[in-house]
Amino acid sequence: MSYSEEYLRVAIQRATVFLILLGAVTWTCVAQSKRPLPIVSAASVPFYPRIAQAAHVEGAVRLRISTDGKQPTSIEVESGPPMLARAAEENVKTWQFEQRDPATFEATFRYVLVLSKCDSQCNCDDVRTNSVSLRLPTEVEVSANAEITCDPSVNIKR
Length: 158
Known about the structure:
Layout: H1 3-33, E1 40-42, H2 50-54, E2 59-67, E3 72-79, H3 82-92, E4 96-97, E5 104-114, E6 131-135, E7 139-145
Parallel strand pairs: 5-7
Antiparallel strand pairs: 1-4, 2-3, 2-5, 6-7
């Protein structure tokens, strides 16, 4: 067998191994993405952390959650403001699932501050906009009124 034939044979073997590995990885990813999400059977209502609300901190927290089939066993923060991430983690720890196979999935908690309407005299509508929207186990939205501080000395006419 000549050098070029040997080189071609080795190249074909390597390409075959690469394609087999690529197919296995693709199949694994597809199989994981089609796993049914766990069903949350009990959970505490999430809240907007008071200190984050006062500091006007808002944003999205992405978590990677693993379960043993009944409750969370691992919660990893992938992104988000630390003040809000702690609140999201604490809430997920309260989740209970209908008995299923162990699973891992991502959840996003969105924390939103809503501004009240205020006039130039710092008189604000006292409309409470605190709300929670649950699309468990993958999405949670928590909104609260943004705290507004007015300085009456700004409005003094001279």
